[in-house]
């Protein structure tokens, strides 16, 4: 019994020593930890901007009953937005796609068939994205440079495949949750409270209360001194970095302390569309 207790104490002491050595290594070699974290492929969620700039975006994957209404509201305030449209939606509503483009809004890619891209191979992802790009370009004459993966889902393979064809994956840092059919007042409060300089706001076309909420949101942010620009104008050109929260930074700027990226290889931020 005495021999067993002695062995147990020796084992415990050895384990503690190994743990202490590991902590010492991490503290004295943070670059190793940073290098491991840096391998995580992230899209752009928001942008470091000193000016009060904000981009509003709409995902279009189902009906188009309020598309013209959204165009009219945005025109009233002379604001240009970014619409991420699914290729199938382009097939169904080419006139809406043309109307968005003619009104000066960006028409960007939201995949061809709204598939879960993390379940596709690199080749399948590229084929899907390019098919949607072809459809949008055929209607608008402009080939998309930005894409929002369906469901807000991505992994390293998705992001790498997208960037390999010269496109930039875009997420959001302010979610209106309009797809939940929240009351207009609640949508307005969520968005106005959440916006910061460099924010990207997520809305959806064909959401029940978005046309009702949108004017109040625009007016409140304009009164706060915000300027609205399409996403292609708020994101930074190369060279840039992206911190662990998905904030895009100029390459020369040191990244601020940030919340670690999700531990899993797959990130899903948008349960609806």
Automatic annotation (TrEMBL):
It holds the Pfam family Polysacc_deac_1. GO terms for cellular component: membrane. Residues 250-264 have a biased composition (Low complexity). Residues 1-31 form the signal peptide. The keyword Signal applies. Residues 52-229 form the NodB homology domain. Keywords: Signal. Residues 247-273 are annotated as: Disordered. One of its GO terms (molecular function) is hydrolase activity, acting on carbon-nitrogen (but not peptide) bonds. One of its GO terms (biological process) is carbohydrate metabolic process. InterPro entries: Glyco_hydro/deAcase_b/a-brl, NODB_dom, Polysacc_deacetylase_ArnD. PANTHER family: GLYCOSYL TRANSFERASE-RELATED, POLYSACCHARIDE DEACETYLASE PDAB-RELATED. This is Polysaccharide deacetylase family protein. It comes from Lawsonibacter faecis.
């Amino acid at each position: 019994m005495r021999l067993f207790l002695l062995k147990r104490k020796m084992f415990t002491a050895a384990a503690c020593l190994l743990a202490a050595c590991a902590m010492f290594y991490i503290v004295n070699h943070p670059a190793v930890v940073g290098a491991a974290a840096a391998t995580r492929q992230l899209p752009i969620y928001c942008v470091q901007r000193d000016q009060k700039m904000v981009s509003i975006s709409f995902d279009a994957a189902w009906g188009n009953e309020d598309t013209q209404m959204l165009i009219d509201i945005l025109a009233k305030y002379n604001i240009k937005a970014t619409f991420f449209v699914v290729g199938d939606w382009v097939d169904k509503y080419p006139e809406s796609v043309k109307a968005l483009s003619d009104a000066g809004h960006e028409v960007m890619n939201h995949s061809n068939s709204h598939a879960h891209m993390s379940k596709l191979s690199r080749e399948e992802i590229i084929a899907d994205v390019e098919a949607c790009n072809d459809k949008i370009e055929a209607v608008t004459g402009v080939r998309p440079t930005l894409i929002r993966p369906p469901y807000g889902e991505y992994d390293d393979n998705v992001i790498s495949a997208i960037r390999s064809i010269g496109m930039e994956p875009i997420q959001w840092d302010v979610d209106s949750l309009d797809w939940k059919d929240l009351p207009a007042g609640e949508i307005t409060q969520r968005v106005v409270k959440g916006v910061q300089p460099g924010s990207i706001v997520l809305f959806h076309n064909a959401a029940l209360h978005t046309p009702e909420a949108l004017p109040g949101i625009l007016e409140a942010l304009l009164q706060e001194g915000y300027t609205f620009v399409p996403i292609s104008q708020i994101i930074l050109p190369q060279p840039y970095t992206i911190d662990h929260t998905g904030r895009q930074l100029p390459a020369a700027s040191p990244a601020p302390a940030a919340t670690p990226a999700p531990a899993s290889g797959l990130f899903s931020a948008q349960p609806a569309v």
